[in-house]
Design goal:
- The chain is of the alpha+beta class.
- The chain folds into two domains: 12-92, Phosphorylase Kinase, domain 1 (2-Layer Sandwich), CATH 3.30.200; 97-243, Aminoglycoside 3'-phosphotransferase, Chain: A, domain 2, CATH 3.90.1200.10.
- 34% of the residues lie in helices and 20% in strands.
- The chain has seven helices and ten strands.
- It has helices at residues 12-18, 58-68, 108-125, 137-146, 198-213, 218-225, 231-243; strands at residues 23-28, 34-38, 45-51, 77-82, 86-92, 97-98, 164-167, 176-178, 184-187, 194-197.
- The strands form three sheets. The chain has a five-stranded antiparallel β-sheet, sandwiched between helices. The chain has a three-stranded antiparallel β-sheet with strand order 6-8-9, with helices on one face. The chain has a two-stranded antiparallel sheet with strand order 7-10.
- A hairpin with a 5-residue loop joins β8 and β9 (184-187).
- It is globular.
- Mg(2+) binds at residues 175, 189.
- The active site is at residue 170.
- One of its GO terms (molecular function) is ATP binding.
- It holds the Pfam family APH.
- Residues 35-235 form the Aminoglycoside phosphotransferase domain.
């Protein structure tokens, strides 16, 4: 999730899935995908509509959500589909508020440590041995090159794995939902979930605090996760994120 949605006419599939419920555009991503809320309250659903693009797969996200839901709270998949131009995913709403809206945006002293603890709980809960997917530097570099990206980051520079976990794959602040007491209650946007070094997630989660809360919050996030800052791994995985 990245930006507010400009006025537009929703695709026909949105009205079909809404089945008469109110349709509210919520977010637009950098690839032209739009997330809509269908209905309101406890029965609300979310529809992610994405033009076909080699960088993202809604079908892949549906499979990952279904697997991850066995171990952590994340959106329940209700339906998915595609046509010649786009694909879509409908999920049930989950409790919580995005970490980048008020009140959490105004209280980084509460929010950022909660994000670090929430990321650690995710890593502790998801079993590496049974995860069907990987998210290694080799995977990511190969995927980027298949899309024609000329990289200045090499897998030969990748640090030795510190600790393998099932990574979120997009551990930016908006993809964590917080509850009223100020703790992470659910995880969203798991389309790149897979096994990798935990620093692949930690580095991105820390970097995202700069974009959302300003400077000075990277170290508090890492501390709340429960490890000391490893600057070499942070630097590598942040460069890899930017490059791919």
């Amino acid at each position: 999730m990245t930006a507010a949605v400009p006025p537009h006419e929703p695709p026909d599939i949105v009205a079909s899935c809404a089945d008469g419920d109110a349709v509210t555009p919520v977010w637009r991503n950098d690839l032209g995908g739009i997330t809509y809320r269908l209905g309101e309250g406890s029965t609300a659903r979310y529809l992610k509509w994405q033009p076909l693009d080699p960088e993202v797969s809604v079908d892949a996200e549906a499979h990952r959500l279904t697997w991850a839901a066995l171990f952590v709270r994340c959106p329940t998949v209700l339906a998915s589909g595609h046509d010649d131009d786009a694909e879509w995913l409908v999920t049930a709403a989950v409790p919580g508020v995005s970490a980048v809206v008020d009140p959490w945006l105004r209280t980084p002293d509460v929010t950022v440590p909660a994000l670090g603890r929430g990321l650690r709980r995710l890593h502790d809960a998801l079993p590496v041995d049974s995860c069907p997917w990987t998210w290694s530097p080799l995977d990511r570099v190969a995927d980027a090159r298949s899309r024609g990206i000329d990289l200045d980051v090499s897998t030969a520079d990748a640090p030795v794995i510190d600790h393998a976990v099932v990574c979120h794959g997009d551990a930016c602040s908006p993809n964590f939902l917080l509850s009223a007491p100020g703790e992470v209650t659910a995880y969203v946007d798991l389309g790149s979930l897979g096994v990798a070094d935990r620093w692949a997630d930690i580095a991105v989660a820390a970097m995202s605090t700069r974009w959302n809360y300003g400077p000075g919050w990277e170290k508090p996030l890492v501390a709340a996760y429960g490890v000391d800052v490893d600057q070499d791994r942070m630097d590598y995985y942040q460069r890899l994120w930017d490059a791919t």
